[in-house]
Amino acid sequence: MWVEIFCGLIVYRLFRGFFSDDNVLDVETSDSRALFSVANRFEKLYRGKVYVGLRIPDADTGSRQNIDMVLVTKGEAVVISVMNLSGFVSVNADGSWVCEGGSKHKSERLLDPVVETKRRASILESYLEQRGVALPEGYFSCKVVLPNQELSTIRSSNFPSEVITYDQWVQLKPEPKSMFSGWMKGAFCGGKKEMQESIHQKLNFILSTAPMWDRLELKGNKYALGEFLEFKGKWEDIQSLKNIKRSKVSRLVIQKTSMFGFGFCGQISAPSTLQVLYSPRDYRSEGASASEWKEVTVRSSTEVLFQPENSTKVGKFKISSVVSLCLTA
Q1: Using CA atoms, how far apart are residues 328 and 306, in angstroms rounded to an integer?
Q2: Residue 266 and residue 300 in contact, taking contact as beta carbons nearer than 8 Å
Q3: What predicted TM-score, i.e. pTM, was given to this entire model?
Q4: Where is the NERD domain (predicted)?
Q5: Which residues contact 209 (CB under 8 A, 6 or more apart)?
Q6: What share of the chain is helix, strand, coil (3-state, %, to 5)?
Q7: Under DSSP, is residue 37 helix (H, G, I), strand (E, B) or coil?
Q8: b/e code 233-269 from CB counts within 10 Å (16+ = b)
Q9: 3 — pLDDT class (breaks 50, 70, 90)
Q10: In sequence order, what are the residues at sequence separation of 6 or more whose Cβ sits closer than 8 angstroms to the Cβ of residue 291?
Q11: What is the pLDDT of residues 30-62, one digit of tens each?
Q12: Contact 140, 123 (CB under 8 A)
């Protein structure tokens, strides 16, 4: 009997390897994990606020431009692109990049990331002006971060000063408040005027209410940016979740209940039901107080349907694997 069980497990793993989308989703969550890792480090190092996954309207094209993140400090802001590349990357004479090897196992040509980041910074600046924020000239600077240790830069001296290679990234050190030194000095100081507190507050408010991707946090420190679609599951569970709508809810958190089932050989399995805590959307503040959180209980088999950014595949995630979900207005 054990032979049959062992053979069955092998067949199951082979079947998943051929037909499952887990590898695709792993790549997508890996990119998002790199994004949030960079954001968290910038916030700690420079005591600023980082806005991740912005989707800024472009008046010229009528579309939305994706901006990985914007770091806002008391003095200025930095528009940052994060490129989770692996393999070998070099710069051509025209400024374009060539990435060879890595996870895709092929040569890939990329438009100059620095030029692209500056273009998006210009679009963001126009958007801010439309919303009533006129920033000092040269207030925005740009950076392109290469945080993947499996990436090697060929002739790194050819890369523009705006590019932060992996070696530079790991050497970053915490700086005293309002003090920046080393290779970051030009980006954060540069002789620019100190931004007035009122402008700083208004900028933070506008960025916090700007269009963004939804953010799905999964167990295992995984993240995905994209668009929440809907819940799938038993009728009773969907009815319990019917009040969780984008216009009414900004964030939900999944918590375990005290009910546990028993799996194979008496091992404890996932809870049969889970508590879903959600906070009503409040446009006047950034979050809800503890007393404002509401709660519903659903089966752990309930699924979250989520469309990852830059993917044609819809991800289906068991709600038991979800830590939190942030919804944009």
Answers
A1: 14
A2: no
A3: 0.80
A4: 30-147
A5: 283, 329
A6: 30, 35, 35
A7: helix
A8: beeebeebbeebeeeebbbbbbeeeeeeeeeeeeeee
A9: very low
A10: none
A11: 788 899 999 999 999 988 999 999 999 998 888
A12: no
